[in-house]
Amino acid sequence: MKYCDLHCDALTASGKKQVTKARLEAGDCLLQCFAAFVEEGGFSRFSSLADKFDDLVKNEGYHRVLYASDVKENAVNALLSCEGGAWESIEELRGLYARGVRMAGFVWNTPTAAGYPNFPDYQGLCAGRISPSVREEKRGLTPFGHESAELMAQLGIIPDVSHGSDALFWEIAQKKRPFVASHSNAASVQNWARNLTDEQIAAVADCGGVIGLNFCADFLSDDGSAAGQRTAILAHVRAILNAGGEDVLAVGSDFDGIPENAYLPDPSCMPSFFETLVDEFGPRIAEKAARDNFLRVLRDVVGDK
């Protein structure tokens, strides 16, 4: 079953990569989104990663997607996205679009010019001083973040709220336009701030957006075994479907940004995953989650050439 993956960090991964062209082909990937992750360095750092994406497309034979109509059935398509502090001015946001970005996250785990992240104290989280369930509820988009969201709508860039605070999430949802949480799961199953509440899942669905299932073991379950991860992933799928319906589920693996998942270590394992979805939820829901739901958002926000 051909599928779209809304998030991977192959552009910034070092050492042995989980995402390769051969593994994507083995997994029958239709479209892989490659995130330009900018923790520091701003637009200059983004530009170097965009250059790396250009080289990857050229040298590995990916088919680049700038519009929904660019997606080819007989190719591994590649779409450039970004997360973190990739832009700090309207001119730079226009520059992202000019370089091919069609999906953009406002933050990573630390504040940016555009807004605030899920975790109110990321350093405290890393040091074990606060629980991963503690959510940033008050601080959201900055005035510049609101201005950016409006320009994204005009240009045709999909807003991505994964890593965004609860306040940021609701400010984007209140705009009543399609948006995505490219790599997030269900907080009702695993209570991490990076996961979405049932109310948030319903809001994404109401706006015509999608949620990409994240394969990070910690976000799925405390049981990191292959069997435990399989059970957890199905529980997250069921929770997202129950809260948001069958048009909201998608895949956002986070490959190359996470430790290897014992159940789904790389893209070559995706066929067995979708076979399991078919067995558990039926072929219609599996097909929607695999490709149809995200391709709808791509058409609705980015549009055709």
H and E string: EHEHEEHEHHEHEHEHHEHH
Number of helices in the DSSP assignment = 11
Number of strands: 9
Q: Measured on Cα atoms, how large is the radius of gyration? A: 17 Å
CATH-defined topology: TIM Barrel
Structural class: alpha/beta
The CATH level-2 architecture is identified as Alpha-Beta Barrel
Work out the strand percent.
Answer: 5-15%
Q: Please give the share of residues in helix.
A: 40-55%
- Taking pLDDT < 50 over at least 5 consecutive residues as the criterion, the unreliable ranges are none
How far apart are the termini? 26 Å
Biggest sheet features: 6 strands, parallel
Give the CATH H-level superfamily. Answer: Metal-dependent hydrolases
* Global morphology: globular
Provide the fold topology.
Elements: E1 3-5, H1 21-26, E2 29-38, H2 42-60, E3 63-64, E4 77-84, H3 90-98, E5 101-105, H4 122-126, H5 143-155, E6 158-160, H6 166-173, E7 180-181, H7 198-206, E8 210-213, H8 217-220, H9 226-244, E9 249-251, H10 270-281, H11 283-302
Helix pairs in contact: 3-5, 7-9, 10-11
